[in-house]
Task: structure prediction
Amino acid sequence: MALRTMAWLTGFALIGSAISVNAMADGTVLGLYNPLGVYVGAGLGRSSLNQTDLDEFASDFHHIDGQPLGWNAVIGVRPLPFLGAEVEYIDFGNTHTGALAAYNANQFLGADVHDQAAALFAVGYLPLPIPWMEPFVKLGWAEMWEHDSYSGIYNGVIVNGTPLGLQSASQTTHPNGTAYGGGLQFHFEQFAVRAQYERISGERSFGGWNNPDLYSVGLSWTF
Result:
């Protein structure tokens, strides 16, 4: 936990230092002098959630698959033409799985999942003869905020001589893992249009794996 906290503090300190250096470089506002290439951006797209949700009163697992709308927001620096760094928030959206047929007096009524993440990336850019088009790759670490909930009717489960009946449960966990991605960026003066793919490999507390991803198109502005 201390290591993860230190990593986040270091990442935000680097971004904050970049902004401070630019702001103080000529004694005026950020934007008139930006040697570290500070930029901000946001994107919108389609995510994929594929998780294993545990129904603790049943004898098997239920899978939750969905492709909800997702979005991201980023603050980045690019001190060198081929290398930069980003701090990013990603909302992968939420998805739902419906009820399953009743079996042995038990019925799974459904489950909901909502995944969010904060990530710190190193970003590498591949220079091309076309100056306004740049392929890039990104690699880093992310921590997720994962909220799961489910409900079911369990008349076939007897507790103290009484059918359990309607039950529901929810939890929020914080798995973390490697984050990676890549895409293509198009420059237009200080504006840029970015099409990218991002994925996080994180272990879930239920014992399965949660690997949400996001295909997005976004805009950024370099100060």
In short: DSSP finds one helix and eleven strands in the chain. Residues 88 and 160 are 50 Å apart (CA to CA). The first helix runs from residue 2 to 24. The chain has a mean pLDDT of 82.
